[in-house]
Amino acid sequence: MRLLIAAVGRLKSGPERLLASDYEARIVATGRKAGISTLKTVELAESQNASAPRRMEEEARGLIATLPPRAITVALDERGTTMTSDAFARLMQRLADDGTPDLAFLIGGPDGHGAEIRDGASHILAFGPMTWPHRLVRIMLLEQIYRAITIMVNHPYHRA
């Protein structure tokens, strides 16, 4: 299964970029054992439109354009479902076992996702009811993907 993270906004050099790179390397190294063949991250520029609804529409079009055909999509949104790390690992395992070729995670910009993304997503995932900066969400997502993979391959990283 190939993983894609499509995110509105760019990580600048510094601690966030270093942490993201570390988790990306861990995912690639350990993921093969769990049936994860690749991880690709696409960063999209934030819309500069004056209207928040228009910004979300423009960003949605950009995110959708990055998706491989028939990808299973997970939109990160505060209105989504919260999951334990074990449940997230089970979801990833089920998708891999089902032969899902592409799993795409969508991270919106500062205004969040518009209805087009939420309505079209296979799953909507929340990291709790709080609003998180999209740059931190990417780090949290990478860590949870890595944690899920370690659960899938019985690596001792995750301790319940």
Describe the fold and architecture:
The structure is a single chain. With about 160 residues, the chain is α/β, with parallel strands linked by helices. The chain has a single domain (about 1-150), classed as Alpha/beta knot. The protein is about 45% helix and about 20% strand. The chain has helices at about 15-30, 50-65, 85-95, 115-120, 135-150; strands spanning about 1-10, 40-45, 70-80, 100-105, 125. It has a five-stranded parallel β-sheet with strand order 2-1-4-3-5. Helix 1 (about 15-30) packs parallel to helix 5 (about 135-150) and helix 3 crosses helix 5.
Layout: helices, strands, pairs:
Blueprint: E1 2-8, H1 15-31, E2 38-44, H2 52-65, E3 72-81, H3 85-97, E4 102-107, H4 115-120, E5 123-125, H5 134-152
Helix pairs in contact: 1-5, 3-5
Q: What's a concise summary of this model?
A:
This protein is an alpha/beta fold. The protein has 5 helices and 5 strands; from the N terminus they run βαβαβαβαβα.
Tags for this entry?
43% helix; 21% strand; 160 residues; 5 helices; alpha/beta; single chain; Alpha/beta knot
Find the structural class using helix and strand composition.
alpha/beta
Q: Note the gap between the termini.
A: 26 Å
Nearest-integer average pLDDT: 95
> What is the total tally of β strands?
5
Q: Hey, roughly how much beta strand do the residues contain?
A: 15-25%
Name the CATH architecture. Answer: 3-Layer(aba) Sandwich
CATH homologous superfamily descriptor: SPOUT methyltransferase, trefoil knot domain
H/I helix tally: 5
Q: Globular, elongated, flat, extended or rod-shaped: what is the shape?
A: globular
Helix content: 40-55%
Give the biggest sheet. 5 strands, parallel
